[in-house]
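Hi support team,

I've been running sequence recovery on a batch of backbones for a student project. Most finish fine, but this one hangs at about 90% for roughly twenty minutes before it completes. I'm not sure whether the input is malformed or the queue is just slow. I've pasted the structure tokens below so you can try to reproduce it. Let me know if you need the job ID as well.

Thanks,
M.K.
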């Protein structure tokens, strides 16, 4: 369809001309094409391979869920499916328990991370330990323990895919899942749970932690991450957990600080919502793939297989790097310590 020509206002034309000439002149002065002035560096994509990477041996996952009358012990189990690796498909996989944050009791809040973990070759258990703000926090750990034990009891020896509990379990925890996971790990022996081989605490709370966490084995690999713009929990949770896990040697636990970076667009924002999917008002970016996902994968690999330890611990370049912007500028890396660090200058994290 043809549209009638619109008459241009003489005033508009008179203003537009000098502006375009000025933009072009500035571009020529700095040696850029006019359109390049508006270009911004893009953040790094997901790595092609390695911890946090897209080298998935499985194409997807299946899920089953179990509900209970009071709903506080419900759980979901995700199993890898669609083998696309070499040789015959494995029938067992390491166990990962992803423990949600306060009122994040639906796996949709963490759907991207769960899908990644399953496709990487893990059986992922997602326990719902609360259904509302009225669920007493003192019951969170016992509710989650019930769910984990019930989920593991549902497997037969001839199941086509089942968790290999002889490898222990990796706990990945966000927000209130932090103290809940710490309590689960401390009670593992008394509750006859798989041995906690690794724990990633992502922006944990400092509340309802057992008086003693001495039950966590000294061999457990631990990473605790503070987000620089986290005004919800900030450093308070990692500080509390650090004080209760002093029996774990420095070689096995790292205190990590994650920073925002607005060098390009879209900016990378390190706040309390980094681990969540779109339903949790966050988006996937380098802070996920090259930050939390990498650390979770590497802690599992290091503790279970003895691989990728340089990505999990030790303040190495492999551990701290979050990649580079499209113009070659490095994303601000993770800061790693084996003790409670001072707050970085200008940090907006709670507790600073």
């Amino acid at each position: 369809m043809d549209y009638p020509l619109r008459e241009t206002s003489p005033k508009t034309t008179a203003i537009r001309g000098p502006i375009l000439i000025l933009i072009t002149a500035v571009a020529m002065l700095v040696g850029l094409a006019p359109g390049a002035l508006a270009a911004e560096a893009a953040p790094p994509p997901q790595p092609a391979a390695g911890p946090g990477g897209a080298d998935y041996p499985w194409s997807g996952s299946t899920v089953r869920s179990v509900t209970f009358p009071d709903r506080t012990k419900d759980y979901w189990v995700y199993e890898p499916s669609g083998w696309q690796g070499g040789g015959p498909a494995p029938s067992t996989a390491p166990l990962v328990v992803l423990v949600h944050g306060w009122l994040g009791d639906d796996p949709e809040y963490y759907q991207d991370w769960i899908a990644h973990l399953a496709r990487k070759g893990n059986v992922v258990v997602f326990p719902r330990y609360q259904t509302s703000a009225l669920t007493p926090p003192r019951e969170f750990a016992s509710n989650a323990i019930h769910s984990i034990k019930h989920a593991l009891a549902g497997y037969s020896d001839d199941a086509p895919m089942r968790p290999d509990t002889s490898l222990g379990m990796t706990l990945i925890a966000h927000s209130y899942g932090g103290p809940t996971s710490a309590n689960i790990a401390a009670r593992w022996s008394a509750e006859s749970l798989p041995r906690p081989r690794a724990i990633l605490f992502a922006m944990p709370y400092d509340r309802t932690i057992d008086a003693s966490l001495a039950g966590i084995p000294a061999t457990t690999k631990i990473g605790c991450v503070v987000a620089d713009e986290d005004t919800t929990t900030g450093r308070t949770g990692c500080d509390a957990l650090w004080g209760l896990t002093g029996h774990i040697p420095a070689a096995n636990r790292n205190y990590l600080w994650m920073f925002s970076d607005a060098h390009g667009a879209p900016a990378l924002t390190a706040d309390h919502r980094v681990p969540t999917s779109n339903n949790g008002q966050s988006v996937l970016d380098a802070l996920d793939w090259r930050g939390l996902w990498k650390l979770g994968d590497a802690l599992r690999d290091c503790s279970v297989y003895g691989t990728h330890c340089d990505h999990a611990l030790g303040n190495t370049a492999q551990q701290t790097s979050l990649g580079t912007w499209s113009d070659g500028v490095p994303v601000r890396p993770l800061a790693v310590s084996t003790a409670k660090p001072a707050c970085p200058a200008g940090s907006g994290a709670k507790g600073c």
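--
Follow-up from support: It reproduced on our side and the slowdown came from queue contention, not your input. Residues 1-37 have pLDDT under 50 and may be disordered. No action needed from you.
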